[in-house]
Specification:
CATH architecture: 3-Layer(aba) Sandwich
Number of strands: 7
Structural class: alpha/beta
CATH class: Alpha Beta
Radius of gyration: 17 Å
Strand order of the largest sheet: 3-2-1-4-5-6-7
Largest sheet: 7 strands, parallel
CATH topology: Rossmann fold
Helix content: 40-55%
Amino acid sequence: MSAPIAIVTGAAGGIGAATVTRLMADGFQVCAVDRTQGEAPAHENRLDLIEDLVDPSAAARIAQATFDRFGRIDVLVNNAGVGGARAVHDTDDAGWSRIIEINLTGTFRMSRAVLPDMLSRGSGSIIHVASMFGLIGWRNNSAYAASKAGIDGLTRQMTADYAAKGIRVNAVAPGLILTAMTEQLLTDQVYRELILQGTPIGRPGEVGDVANLIAFLASDQATFICGQTIAIDGGWTAARVRNTP
């Protein structure tokens, strides 16, 4: 059988870059998409695209470029996302729209773009990257929480629509993972106290932890897992306990 084909958005760094590396190690050919050029060297099994998912036409271009290069699309990893949310009273329309557009609408558009090929073959796996902050409340986080909760709901709805047609849809909900996005958060003493010290495992996660879960959900070992949002947070959403340094 020929190598499976995956699209990974938000692929230039963090969880996205780790996912590209892991999938390629598993034998995938990958279309790696981001708004900026990544640092990984060119490889015959990877197609690098610079696209901004705020553009309504970007998803269709990405899907078509992947199909033109590799001939089909087996897996989609909707990882692209932004933070920077505030409380509702402190959020203007532009700030709300930017986060919802990238995190939730971008996920919807990318899924819509790959579904015709998956439906035509009766197989496929779509993996959304949600967040533990879409599962529980957190201070000053309105648009981000809403976008990630929307991904959780979209995962279930797409399962209702497409599971019987051979397409599995799941989501991963990372907790505190060491990335460029979380570095500044860890300088906040309250954040460290409530998140890091409240994680039962007692440490932050690594991007490879999330990439490993995504790779499993994309694999043939996960063929009966569908419609799930799986928290990967060291136990934080299950049992927040204080860990002394």
